[in-house]
Amino acid sequence: MLKQGGLSRYHERTAMRYPVWKYILIVLVLCVSAIYSLPNLYPDEPAIQITGANAGIKADQAVLQQAESALKQAGLAYHGSEVQAKGALLRVQTSDSQLKAQAAIKRALGDSYVVALNLAPTTPVWLSSLGASPMKLGLDLRGGVHFLLEVDMSKILEQRQETYTTDIKSKLRDAKIAYRTVSDVPSGLTVKFEKDEDRAAAKELLAPEFREFVMLPATREGALYLDLGFTPQKLKEFSDYAIEQNLTTLRNRVNELGVAEAVVQRQGANRIVVQLPGVQDTAEAKRVLGRTATLEFRFVDWENQASADGFAPAGTELFTMAKTNEPVLLQRKKIVTGDRVVNAQSGFDEYSKSQVNITLDSRGGKMMAEATRDNVGKQMAVLFVESKQRIKYMTDADGKTIEVREPYVEKNIINRATVQSMLGSSFRITGLDSPEEGRELALLLRAGALAAPMYFVEERTIGPSLGQDNIDKGMMSTQVGFIAVAVLMMIVYRVFGFIANLALFMNVAMMIAIMSAIGAALSLPGIAGIVLTVGMAVDANVLIYERIREELRAGQSPQGAIIAGYDRAYVTILDANITTLIVAFILFAVGTGPVKGFAVTLAIGILCSMFTAITMTRAVVQIIYGNRRVTKLSI
After folding, report:
1. What is the largest CA-CA distance in the chain?
2. 155 or 26, which is more confident
């Protein structure tokens, strides 16, 4: 019997042994988690970022010194300044002084620079070199601005009707088909004719190329018409295009503010939500969001060039070259506009000069080919059109200085070249000053102008003090929840409760490390997910420990009870966590911003708790009870 019992204990100790590779994995995970969660002990601090209004303007050391002088004159303290690749950066103490510093610097530098609110990292260099950074905070924690914009869908239809009207008139003239007028009607166009044979010929000509129309002959008040109605699919395409194009444009525009984790997403059929964490200046945000830029390709009018003398004859317009201010007379008729650009990439020509390679859509390619076919040898200009705002400072009746913003449209010729041969869908723009200018032009072309006007229907500002209050309350709730769970586990399960608390601590550290590493933004719902995970993380340990108790009551030896507890509770733990993971994935798939934040935190917490509650606690139990004779467990 003694031999059998000794053999049984030998088998139990053998079964209790834990593979070395699992210990190595646990140590590696703990080290990585510690490294990538440490940056959260070094929170970002308020800063002012200065960048040029366009790629040709650099924020160098001279600009930084000018900004420092402006802060000193205003009596505002700052404790760090540097010139970075993206521009100049000045660090300040508080969010309130950040706003005052922005106003002082903006007034000193003028419209040539974008002075944006930002948060500068304080993470030590050795952590940054490893790619470690603190978690980004959402709008509800950091403060910022929230906009709800509505896209005017009627304008996109008007723009399309105008484009199609020009195309149809051109086609009918080229085919020598007589018509009276081409006019807009709801959801389409109508063409008026004198003769039925002209209408029939026009339908036969237009139907193969303009398949987006349903063409129906009609007679109204004794006149002959050909009604061209957009198909429902085409109308939906216009609507989706306007939303997607505006989304793309806005996402690129908010980059000027230097805002981390900005949210730009569609809401409903014709609305867009924009959230800019860390931004308190709604006027500046509106300026950036409303900024539009596009291109117009036009022929140079050389016939009247010499005689223009500052005046533009009928059918022409006078503009200046962006670099030399040389006056150039252009024809009013536009060959192609920027809305026909489907792709734009910056690069270099054969002389290593910066260029932008343009790709037009099929209709734009046809329009370009038709325009250049008979104009080889003539010059074509690229007109850059941008909507801007001027900022003026005036004194009101009370003697206070107020800021006045004046919108205006700036048009400059950025390129002028001779047409060497008929152009098509792909060509290039050369003569740019720098690669940065080429990249910016390509970006503006890809993002394009706003496809349709937008109106601000809702505007909210969340103060940084409210965000800090949310952070404080969130931290308090997490700490209270952690302490309450830890105390309860220690009271109920004693040594095993202490092991569960170690796992719980590492679970929170792993969650923070993973969220920091993947760049997830922490919001109030995210904090709720962390608090919920703290409570759920010990569920697996409770199941294991209760199973160990049952095995002890059934007469199992301590080590045998440990083996049975972990092995037999595993399936139940796996099932319970998989069902919760499925719910988290569904919340992420169908939810909006706050719900997605909660779902991400919950899913990460569940995966971390599976590792810490099963693998890590099992390793600690093995260290304590696996290599010695045990007659009683502290559980």
Report:
1. 120
2. 26
